[in-house]
Amino acid sequence: MKIVLDATVFEEPITGIAKLTLFLYRECVRMMPSLQIVGLHRRPLKLNINPPIEPVKIGGFLPHNMWRMFLLSPAMRFHPSTAVHFPWNGGIPRLSRKESVITTLHDVLPLTIPDFFQSDDGIIKYRNKIQTDFSRTHLLITDSEFSRKEISKHFVVKDEPVVISPGCTLEVNDAEHKTAQKPEGEYFLYVGGYDRRKGLEQLLKIHFSLHREKKISGKLILTGSPNYFSTTFERMVKDGILRGLVEEKGYVSDAALVELYLHAKALVYPSKYEGFGLPALEAMTLGCPVLTTKCTSLPEVCGGAACYIDPDNELEFARALVEVERNDGFRSELSHKGRQQSLKFTWEKSARAFLQAVEEMLRVRDGKRGKGNPHD
To answer: Same domain for 338 and 356?
Structure first.
């Protein structure tokens, strides 16, 4: 089996989707050594993907949209394959009818988050783009049952999306682990992007209030690329830093992130809208207690292993933070349950499900063509 992959996802600074894609194919090749993956891209890659993906740089002189629209289809003639995979939320060009297309759509959160679009035109444009991608897709993959239901709710799909949840993507060797610095003092941890939907303003407000009332002593460490989505949020972060209550780490290496998880009182992840929620899985894998919400996909990821709060209920949110900081037994229980829950999400399970889905797609397509599998 040979898969051609849209490897432009690896051209950007390391993203979650890029790491998910690389880890999936690593495990697929381990399970099926005969599998070949060729990654087509137009610019230098920011992530080493070989092995298991053979990178092929073509058409670097073309703008991105023209590269995707006009070059990918002709390139398939030089790289005949079993299937073509677009792992980066669609953007599928018109290909020949012979190509078997796999699309990974991680979520459709823009249609779930209230007031995401500034106009009806924005909604229509987004819907049309995704629907066009689906019309060109033979196997549609998403990360969670929540996302699967949202896709089926908002779009017409030829076949039900296949849920293939990711595993943990943290990767640290012994040398990196030995040199990583242990964080000082007690702290709560937030991991992820700065976004209004993540509940960060509410978290800061409650955190500051509890410190004023001397009910908690731990600071709050924020990781992720700083993106101050409002002047209020920026002011709160800067004020917290000046008062010694907040520490911004920005983007951190896997080794540093592992240390942060290992020594945190808890991961606090008060998001309202997630297609999956990878930080919660990372935390559970490392035994870090998780405090999060029952919104969207998060209960699917955390099961009975998290301390759940209503992000709009300040009193409940505050009580949970106090309980997590003060109650060693509660944290220990969450840590144990989290490790057990994380075993449900492994790359071995993901790769097996992916390969089975691809083989089933090919069987169905070949059956419709009325001939045997030409890819054997």
So the answer is: no
Full domain range(s) for residue 126: 2-167+346-369
DSSP class of residue 14? P
Give the C-alpha separation, 362 to 133, whole Å. Answer: 19
Same-domain pairing of 16 and 68: yes
Cα angle 262-265-266, degrees, rounded to a multiple of 5: 85
Domain count of the chain? 2
Q: Return the H-helix or E-strand segment holding 217.
A: none
Do 361 and 281 lie in a common domain? no
pTM of the predicted structure, to 2 decimals: 0.93
Strands (E), 69-138: 83-86, 101-104
Q: Compute mean pLDDT per 10 residues along the chain, 376 residues long, and list them.
A: 95 88 97 97 94 95 88 87 93 87 97 94 96 96 98 94 97 69 90 94 98 97 91 96 96 93 97 97 98 98 98 97 98 98 98 97 82 44
Beta strands in the chain (DSSP E): 2-6, 36-41, 54-57, 83-86, 101-104, 139-142, 162-163, 187-190, 219-223, 246-250, 267-269, 290-293, 307-309
